[in-house]
Amino acid sequence: MYLFTRTHIRLLSSNRGMALMLVVVFVAMSTMIAGISMSMSVNEIKNVQHVVDSTAALYLAEAGIQRALYEVNQLDKAHNLPTADYAIEGFKLDAVGEVGDNFLGDNAIDVMIKPEAASFIVESSALVRSATKTIFVTISKENAGPSIFDYVYFMNNLGTFYGNGILARGDIRSNGPFYFDENPTVNGEIYASGEIDTDDGDIRGTASYEQDGEFPYQHPFSTELPMPNLSDLTKYEEMALANNASISVGGTVIVDGVFGDDGDECGNIILIGTVQNPIEVYGPVVIRGDVIVKGKIMGHGTIYSGRNIYVADNTTYKNSPGTALPNEEAMDTWYENNMDEDIICYAARENIILGDYTSTTGGEWTADTVLFNKGDEDVGEDGIPGTDDDYENDGEFQAEYEDLDGDGIMDDNYGWSDVQTSVPITEFAYCPEDIEGFGDIATNDIGSIEGVLFTNHAIAGEVKNLTVFGALLAKDEAICYDNSLNLFYDLRLHSRFMTTNADWFIQLGLPSDQVWRITEWRE
Description:
By secondary structure, the chain is of the alpha/beta class. Helices cover 19% and strands 33% of the residues. It has helices at residues 6-77, 234-242, 331-338, 368-371, 399-402, 416-419; strands at 86-91, 109-116, 119-128, 131-143, 153-155, 159-162, 166-169, 172-174, 178-181, 185-187, 190-192, 196-197, 218-219, 246-249, 252-256, 258-259, 269-273, 279-287, 291-305, 309-317, 343-348, 352-354, 448-455, 458-474, 476-489, 514-522. The strands form 3 sheets. A 6-stranded parallel beta barrel has the order 19-20-22-24-23-21. A hairpin with a 2-residue loop joins strand 2 and strand 3 (119-128).
């Protein structure tokens, strides 16, 4: 039991009053701190939202620049470059084709193209909520250089990746739209002179990376890159003879510069290499007819064909650098370590055919079901089929726009005559004695190709699980695969390493044509 005196009671009352005062002060301070925190949070949210909106607006403004480049290139092709201010009004990323992944709601991009001497000043502006970004660039005509070889897959037409078994390790590009379906993988960047349709995001890999509603590794409506053509092999024959180029097998020279220029040479040849006796290619060699190739190959050079090149089976380097694609920091070192390893280009004036088109070995050759729907050059002013633009399907040949291979002839869709060898295989030079038909030398079960495949017409064929180390460059592509198609880029092809001799092994007479490019940039 405790005895409370009056003094105790006064002290207790005083303490209660002080405690109440402290509580009031604490509540007031807490309320003030909470208010300050809430205000700071609101401001922080606003700041973060503004940063997000500014980034989105920047991406949209950059898209406007790409659209301006595309527009100027198209107007230049039509000889109709603007002489006064040229506005692209109400441009939205979802306004072309079907609404896909590359859009940010209904945000419009304002683009103005202003002529200035031999160049254009482009102003591209975008507004996302309260954030505005404006980009000013100067675009001028410059030499295109060898940049078509910067891509593991380059189509001078539309590009298509259909199937989840496709893997591209490297950048890919088309001088038209690029279509994707069934979840292919692209570990690189995608460039297209038209829309990029990923079927509502149906794509995997780094190219599918999304940031603030945009896809920074996808570049629709990029400027077109001109592709050199092989319509005239005369200059390559001159190059072959001047460079003492050759093909040897087992130490025996079987092609001395040009094959088919002598009366006793048929112009068609079979090249088969083994580990012990690989095909050895040095310099630019010209075969005037068809070429059938398979097996081990070595050297630095290009095999030009006056007609088709048939990759009949596995065709790989004897001294390969492997399929590694180093990161940015290691590229120069990797190049220095591997620049002397084997590197071969197969350049066909007509088509490159993979596998056994007779369907007698390794399964059925079904590539014709895709190939025979391609090739028609009555494609109109934009050079791309299926766009219903001026002159498309009018039955007349506007060579200025529609001569995609530069041969002066309006081509129709491909057919069997484009696929089959020009003469029976038994009439080819160096045909093995036990060979009676094409199926005796070819298979539809090709697993590996190392090299650069280049043609102004089609790369077509049948494979099952194919890995390509190098690059595919063509007007049309019709490769049918059963399980997987892996495209691994050979970094040695990249223009960053072609400073002194841009076509040191691919003597293609790279385009002297000029394209419109960004030469100055500021925000």
